[in-house]
Amino acid sequence: MATTMGLSIRIDELEGELALCQAVVEKGVSSAELSYEDVPKPKEFVGIMSVCDVENFLWMMENYFRAKGIVDDVVKVNTDSMFLTDIALLWW
C-alpha cells in the first residue's frame, strides 16, 4: 500500500515537471544560445598515421566549425593548420 502511494505521488510530481518542460518547449528557449566563447577548442593533431586519429581530428574540427559558425573554406583551412603540431605541421 505504501509503495503504491509513493508511486502515485512520484507520478504526480513527474507529470508536473513534464507540463513545465512542454510549456518551455512550446514557447522556445531563446536564452539558451551557445556563446562562441563557450565552444571548447579541439585537440591538436600530431600526425600519427592512424585512420581513427585522422577521422577523429576531422570530426572534431567540423563540429568546432559548426559551433563557431565558420562556413568559409579558406577560414576552415587556416584554422585547421593552427591545430597541427609535430610531424603534421611539417606536412603543412
Give a quick set of tags describing it.
mainly alpha; single chain; 2 domains; elongated; 92 residues; 0% strand
Describe this structure in words.
The protein is elongated. It contains 4 helices and no strands. The protein has 2 domains: 1-32; 34-92, no CATH class. The chain has 92 residues and is mostly helical. Helix content is 65%, strand content 0%.
Q: Outline of this structure?
A:
The protein is mainly α. Helices cover 65% and strands 0% of the residues.
Helix-strand makeup class: mainly alpha
**Unreliable stretches covering 5 or more consecutive residues:** none
Radius of gyration from the alpha-carbon trace, in angstroms: 23 Å
* Overall pLDDT score: 79
Strand segment count: 0
| Number of separate structural domains | 2
Order of helices and strands: HHHH
Instruction: Count every helix, treating DSSP H or I runs of 4 or more residues as helices.
Output: 4
Shape: elongated
State the end-to-end distance: 71 Å
Described by strand count, sense and barrel closure, the largest sheet is:
none
Sheet-strand content, in percent, reads under 5%
Helix content range of the residues, please? 55-70%
